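Bench notes, afternoon.
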Amino acid sequence: MQTVVTAHDVIARFVSSPRATDRLNWWRGDGRRAQVVPAVMGHESRVVLSASLDEVRQVCSSTEHALSDV
């Protein structure tokens, strides 16, 4: 069983449409995010594996995603 989720895992799982790919590439290429992109891409999470579905739903409904409405 996987115990760590990386940004690459998230991309492989969720970036499956041309629109999502375009938004990801736009975000990666935006010079204003030159310091943010490497930090995000290097992130690893263990908490996400222990979150309940209700907790995930609450976060999704109460926060804004960095890639907007993908």
